[in-house]
């Protein structure tokens, strides 16, 4: 790692938010030395969303993908406008729970997320930014392999 590790919140570190097997495999060293604004965004994501969620679920949260440098995002086929590239998003799972339960928990507890996406029944994408949209989606693959994002209607109880 190029940048010194530190806690971004009680349970989340900078290095876990920068981890990328793709970057290691292809020697994309910029993945591990993000700009200062990216680190600040990661810290806000951890403090505003991930840490409060960790306290609610009372079990470790595994970050599968946090920050992605441009080349990593391009290599994995991420959106050209991905919030991962600016440190505002993380793909997460909780080992002791299924993805749908995690998704519904985040919806129910009123965290200030920008986007919440249950992706392919494999992980939950959650992002944070100022003036959050509170967009809730489900990502699935069509028969042709295209990703389809379907809005999830928000119950008045979850608004």
TrEMBL record:
It comes from the Bacteria. Pfam families: Peptidase_M15_3. InterPro entries: Peptidase_M15A_C (IPR013230), Zn_M74/Hedgehog-like (IPR009045). Gene3D superfamilies: 3.30.1380.10. Residues 11-127 form the Peptidase M15A C-terminal domain. This is Peptidase M15A C-terminal domain-containing protein. It comes from Spirosoma utsteinense.
